UniProtKB/TrEMBL annotation:
Pfam families: Ribosomal_L18p (PF00861). It comes from Cyanidium caldarium. This is Uncharacterized protein. The lineage of its organism: Eukaryota, Rhodophyta, Bangiophyceae, Cyanidiales, Cyanidiaceae. It comes from the Eukaryota. GO terms for molecular function: 5S rRNA binding; structural constituent of ribosome.
Length: 174
């Protein structure tokens, strides 16, 4: 029994397609899959360009109910290049920025986030960091926005990366 001309399901990268078997066996097999691979590569090109790497330095911001901590991390070496936190006494007392001290609940406030952004930007410039990457969270207001604006005002170029470290359940819909 000859299977020539009988349709069979084939699974390329783009999905299931019903194709005649002799077209798969003939010479068009490799060219068909090559065109599908090129199409899939082109679809992902926008994501790769959006997530283009602008150096090894990343800004990490950690917020809790009582404190704010920010670091500039070198992801290639795995080291912390600069950090600022409301747990550090010079930052809280205002010795670094020459402002009033942050007392009690004001440590984790918008004012505290702004001060942490200023101090981290100054310390990062002192170390020699010119630009860094930062993944903007979904909600960009309040403490996060105050930190970001103060950090950018310190003279460091910040590149925003969209969807770089999301979990498998989330997708970049932009």
């Amino acid at each position: 029994m000859s299977l020539a001309g009988v349709a069979r399901w084939s699974r390329p990268l783009g999905g299931y397609h019903l194709r005649p078997i002799n077209s798969l066996v003939a010479g068009s097999f490799s060219s068909y899959y090559a065109s599908v691979a090129r199409r899939e590569w082109r679809r992902g090109l926008g994501t790769r360009v959006r997530n283009w790497v602008h150096g090894p330095h990343w800004v990490v911001l950690t917020l809790s109910g009582k404190h704010i901590k920010a670091q500039v991390v070198n992801k290639e070496c795995g080291t912390v290049e600069a950090e600022a936190s409301t747990l550090q006494k010079p930052v809280v007392k205002g010795e670094v920025t020459h402002e009033l001290p942050l007392l009690g609940y004001r440590r984790a406030s918008v004012e505290g986030a702004r001060r942490i952004g200023q101090v981290l930007g100054e310390r990062a410039r002192r170390v020699g960091i010119v630009h860094a990457q930062w993944q903007r969270p979904g909600r960009f207001h309040g403490k996060i926005r105050a930190f970001y604006e103060a950090f950018c005002a310190s003279g460091i170029r910040v590149y925003e990366v969209k969807g770089a470290s999301r979990t498998s359940g989330e997708r970049d819909r932009a």
